[in-house]
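Lecture 7 notes: from sequence to structure.
We start with the chain below.
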Amino acid sequence: MLPRRQTMHRRVILLTAGAVLVVGSSLFAQGRPEYIQFSPSPVKGALYKPDAGPAPHVAVLIIHRTANYLSHPGCTEFSRRGFMVLCMVPRFVNNEVQVRWDQIALDVKAGMDFLRKQPGITKVVLFGHSGGGPTMSFYQAI
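Predicted structure tokens for the same chain:
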């Protein structure tokens, strides 16, 4: 049996190694997202694709009504799980007062059209978090 001090030391080493593996794997989930500038609108996006594995056939669209979602955790997490992900910044970023719902729907449509044109994509899932929930619901309703 090992002395208590050596046992504790080994546990610390194992826990540290485990943390490095978990953090390291999520940091490299998507090596190089592709920046997308939608025109003529000021809408922007970041396209995340899995770095390894089979080509995705399902895409996920993530957008908020007024927030910058280019680095939302869903971007890398869905990508890490084999999905193509388009994370977007709407035209009304940081400007809740000027939001016009008809134009927000056009921002979502731009993302949907872009994803549907990607090779191999057969389905697009709308992911609504926070202000993205009503944004996606409004888009689907019209």
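Points to note: Residues 4-27 form the longest helix (24 residues). Residues 12-28 have pLDDT under 50 and may be disordered.
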